[in-house]
Amino acid sequence: MFRRPFASRGIRRSIHLGTLPNSHSPIVSSLSFFKSVTPDGGIIPTFRVLDGVGRPVEGAQIPEIDEPFARRLYENMQLLPTLDTVLYQVQRQGKTSFHMTSHGEEATIIGSAAALELDDEVLGQYREMGVLLWRGFSVDSVMNQCFGNQEDTSGKGRQMPVHFGSPKHHFHTISSPLATQIPHAAGVGYALRRSDRRSRNIAACFFGEGAASEGDFHAGLLLASTIPSPTLFIARNNGFAISTPSTEQYYGDGIASRGPGYGIDTVRVDGNDVLAVIAAVREARKRTLEQGRAVLVEAMSYRVGHHSTSDDSFAYRQRTEVEDRKRIDNPIARFRLYMESQGWWNATEEEELKARLKADVMKALKRAESLPRCELGELFTDVYAGEEPWNIKEQRAELTGLLKKYGDSWEPWRTELGRFKNKGQDLTSV
Amino acid sequence: MLPTRRIPTLVSRPRRSFSKPFQRHNSSVAEPPPAGGHLPSIANSKLLRTTRERSLRTQGLSWNDEQAESTTVRETRKMNVYQAVRDALSIALTKDDNAVVFGEDIAFGGVFRCTMGLAEEFGRERVFNTPLTEQGIAGFAIGMALMGHTPIAEIQFADYIFPAFDQLVNEAAKIRYRSGGQYNVGGLTIRTPTMSVGHGGLYHSQSPEGFFMGASGLKVVIPRSPIQVKGLLLSAIRDPNPVIFMEPKILYRSAIEQVPIDDYTLPLGRAETLVEGSDLTLLTWGTPVYHCETALHMLNDPPPALAPHIPESLRKAKIELIDLRSILPWDAAAITESVNCTGRLVIVHEAGMTAGVGAEIAAEVQKRCFLRLSAPVKRITGWDTPVALQYEKFYIPDAVRIVDGLVETLAY
Ligand SMILES: Cc1ncc(C[n+]2csc(CCOP(=O)(O)OP(=O)(O)O)c2C)c(N)n1
Ligand SMILES: [Mg+2]
């Protein structure tokens, strides 16, 4: 099954030395080690089409996009940080428990979303809210999940903020344990290929360069390449896993260097260049489907925000480093300059868009924070399908009994019950 | 995903300075009466030893230095739990050249600040970040321990210990046995933050200690306070067996004590009786220790809202509160002795009921104390569901559930 051995200088082929039983590896007589996967022994290059100020790089092929598509891209790239900024503030005010922003990765996330088909199955890590936005998951739905209210369709208020999920948008529910979605994605891809109606779809799996250190990363890529499965792996290399810089995460050449180890097509792309991301992911998607086998994209960017609302990144990186990065290379500004150069965008439109997005987000926020949580009884549902085991039944009854006893009189419980739809009566009045 | 430097307080749990505290010592802070009435919280728990005198009288404390017997010259310093962890690690690193500390994000201090400044003090060769792989961290630590070193590895959250489960259960636990005693990983210690904070949801609230109960060869320890953390962690590091040391994360900041600054240990495998009593044994570990303390208060002196549910006749009941501390192996002798005297046992833990640690203890106690039992062993635990974010206050056993269970068991 060997297709392409690692290319390296200094390996001289020699046919007369014979062959190996289980490999087409050519036999050579000179001892030579290698540690690069590129033909010239260098670092894997990064594909880019727009320079830092939005001008096409010499010789670059700009992917085909028309004005309406470009505008949609840009709007989503702006909506994402608009939501992030508000949700971050809202957490700071104590209204929600948590948030994680995508600041700095807007091009990677929106660009890949735009290159996928809307019904490709997406398995994300947690910083991929933009994929859902691209697919029309509403601002209300985002807010409702983050507030964990009765309209949180992602998980009935059970999961932390940003743990979205929506079968309608072919977006599998986020799980906090890192990398677990990577082998799932191989299985999802395989299942797609086995379903007639879905055989034109692929599975697309997002993960961070940190998560790629987990054993599940290896398991997932190994299975999707070997079995094989039409699964596209998109590594978001944003330079950090919480405080750990990517230089302490791996010794090799990023995540991309691992692709050839699994024998799969691999590309590294400038994750701050939305057009490069679109071009790379479109081509990667095409190959995934044609070959029915894993493909790997590594998108390079920089995590401009803190890891999450629980993190203060200035404890481990210089404020100036972040400010410099923001100034030198802002993925949104880069694309805006390109749009302007095409005559597709101008300052007035920019102002209007920002005002409109802010208003939409604030309206959704107002609504979401006014809604109660789901009914308290949802604590016990969805553990099993089918017949409910005795222990769950009995425990629901036990809580019900306690609520009947203390729910009215014990103020801390009464206050807490008041936050649920029907204030716990779904349990106590049956 | 919830590395948090600002560990939020669990609930706006009502506070109180008692007039008749059951463990004597005074640190009353005047505060407006909170909504739920006057009750103790972690912050003003009487179980915490906030004076030098009480600190030095910690049960079972054994000094690990030349002037072993003397307490008069000993000093203490005010520390919270993460500072006590750091203090223990610093002593281990200072006294044992083979000791190393590593894990995800620990070089800058760790997401809970437990390793703050250690990399600067002891160098990056001994205190270092690992790539993000729990199975790798555990396996690497086992390798070092096999060579007689003292790896002290951190798993960032107990919820994320499962990728390391194979290494811990099949390797760390069994190496001594499978090699006929020739190899061992006694030097291994795995530290990990555990239990709920009130808004962690499914994957930042779990208490997975029960999953290790069947892994003979491992020890599992869960401390309740800074003094306990330091002494038990130093014991864990020096114990000739691999130890999983689970630190209740809500306590990192909220539990504060005067902690002896010298090197000392506290015994593994021994429960500690925190309040003596003869009518019922209340057994727990970690965070719920403080909910149990609150519940004892509610029982003795119920706030008006609870009074109707707490019969006068039971309010004088003498409850024996025991902190199990060592979960594996657990102190069956101490629990048996207590239950044989009280005839009643209530076990409180945050993990779900089914096959939780309480199940094992209940089974053993009914065997050992069968004829002495006046009531069935009661377990007050999380439900057999995942921990759901918005529902967490009705998932985690709180003081009201505990006092209700006490009344039920006393009145049985
Ligand atoms: C199995 C597991 N271990 C540890 C964590 C804690 N954790 C949450 S996010 C994170 C860093 C992830 O970094 P990366 O994969 O690069 O993604 P990024 O946050 O940069 O998008 C860590 C260590 C976790 N959620 N799951
Ligand atoms: Mg990252």
From TrEMBL, chain A:
What's its EC? 1.2.4.4
| Top-level taxon of the source organism | Eukaryota
Gene Ontology biological process terms from the UniProt entry:
branched-chain amino acid catabolic process
CDD domains to which the protein is assigned, alphabetical = TPP_E1_PDC_ADC_BCADC
Q: Which ranges carry the Dehydrogenase E1 component domain?
A: 76-372
Tell me which cofactor or cofactors this protein depends on.
Answer: thiamine diphosphate
GO MF term list: branched-chain 2-oxo acid dehydrogenase activity
Q: What keywords tag this UniProt record?
A: Oxidoreductase, Thiamine pyrophosphate
What Pfam families is this protein classified in?
A: E1_dh
List the catalysed reactions. N(6)-[(R)-lipoyl]-L-lysyl-[protein] + 3-methyl-2-oxobutanoate + H(+) = N(6)-[(R)-S(8)-2-methylpropanoyldihydrolipoyl]-L-lysyl-[protein] + CO2
Functional note: The branched-chain alpha-keto dehydrogenase complex catalyzes the overall conversion of alpha-keto acids to acyl-CoA and CO(2). It contains multiple copies of three enzymatic components: branched-chain alpha-keto acid decarboxylase (E1), lipoamide acyltransferase (E2) and lipoamide dehydrogenase (E3).
Q: Which family does it belong to?
A: Belongs to the BCKDHA family.
Q: Specify the protein name.
A: 2-oxoisovalerate dehydrogenase subunit alpha
What organism is recorded for this protein?
Roridomyces roridus
Supply the source organism's classification.
Eukaryota, Fungi, Dikarya, Basidiomycota, Agaricomycotina
Automatic annotation (TrEMBL), chain B:
Q: What class of enzyme is it?
A: oxidoreductase
Assigned EC number: 1.2.4.4
Question: Which branch of life, at top level?
Answer: Eukaryota
Catalysed reactions, as listed in the record: N(6)-[(R)-lipoyl]-L-lysyl-[protein] + 3-methyl-2-oxobutanoate + H(+) = N(6)-[(R)-S(8)-2-methylpropanoyldihydrolipoyl]-L-lysyl-[protein] + CO2
Q: Which GO terms describe its biological process?
A: branched-chain amino acid catabolic process; generation of precursor metabolites and energy; response to nutrient
Recorded hits in CDD domains, A to Z, give: TPP_PYR_E1-PDHc-beta_like (cd07036)
Please indicate if the UniProt record lists Oxidoreductase as a keyword: yes
Which cofactors? Answer: thiamine diphosphate
Name the segments for region: Disordered: 1-48
UniProtKB keywords: Oxidoreductase
Residues annotated as domain Transketolase-like pyrimidine-binding: 79-254
List, in alphabetical order, the Gene Ontology terms for molecular function in this entry: branched-chain 2-oxo acid dehydrogenase activity
InterPro entries, sorted: THDP-binding, Transketo_C/PFOR_II, Transketolase-like_Pyr-bd, Transketolase_C
Q: Sorted alphabetically, which PANTHER family does this protein's record hold? A: 2-OXOISOVALERATE DEHYDROGENASE SUBUNIT BETA, MITOCHONDRIAL, 2-OXOISOVALERATE DEHYDROGENASE SUBUNIT BETA-RELATED
Listed name of the protein = 3-methyl-2-oxobutanoate dehydrogenase (2-methylpropanoyl-transferring)
Organism from which the protein derives: Roridomyces roridus
